[in-house]
Amino acid sequence: MLALRTLVDGKLPPSIERLEPVVRGMEYSAKILLQKPHVVPTVQNGLHDVIRESLFLVSQAQEVAANERKGRQVPTRVAAAQQLPLLLDSLSKNAGKFAAADMSHDAVFDFGRNLNDIRTLTRALTIGDAELKIPAVSNAQQRARLLKLTEEFDLIWASAGKALVNLQAYVTAHHAISHLQKASSELVSGALRVCYAPGIRVEPRS
């Protein structure tokens, strides 16, 4: 261990005292994280599940879209089916931005919108939607594909729920982590300035 001593009167210099607010801020941020230690890993795990599962579903959605085109279905059905792979890919990317260290709040909004759009379209393609002018599926094989896709998407919905139900706590924890990282850097820089300040001697602690 090292001890800092002044060469004049043995008291802590002002340069060290100025670091006290930084330390108190770090203690406060750490307290926030310790109050709900499960939030960050729960949200992160849920988002990583969404990324993995949505990428897996892209190929199934592409198959659904290809069969809609092949069957020369109603244009609104074809257009809706073609949106599914794009939405699943977008969902995966927004989940990644949601989970990133520099979390994008726009990505969080788009993440939720992607989820709702995918659920709306899968239901519409299966049972029909008068408002969207999408008739219900008539082909038995295509119905089976859509039901399988819907079943798999329900898993994504559940994984996303782990993230969204803890959203406010996660944002708070995320800010606390960001503050700790910034304050740690500030503390190290301040400590180095203290070590090399005039009148300071660094000694091994006995």
Describe the structure.
A two-stranded antiparallel sheet has the order 1-2. The chain has two domains: 1-35 and 169-206; 41-165, de novo design (two linked rop proteins) (Up-down Bundle), CATH 1.20.1440. Helix content is 75%, strand content 5%. It is elongated and about 80 Å long. Mean pLDDT is 80; it is low at 1-8. It has seven helices and two strands, in the order βαααααααβ. It has helices spanning 14-17, 20-35, 39-70, 75-99, 105-127, 140-164, 167-195; strands at residues 2-6, 200-204.
- Using the CA coordinates, give the radius of gyration: 27 Å
Question: What oligomeric state do the depicted chains represent?
Answer: single chain
CATH class category name of the largest domain: Mainly Alpha
Tell me, rounded to a whole number, the average pLDDT. 80
What is the CATH architecture annotation of the largest domain?
Up-down Bundle
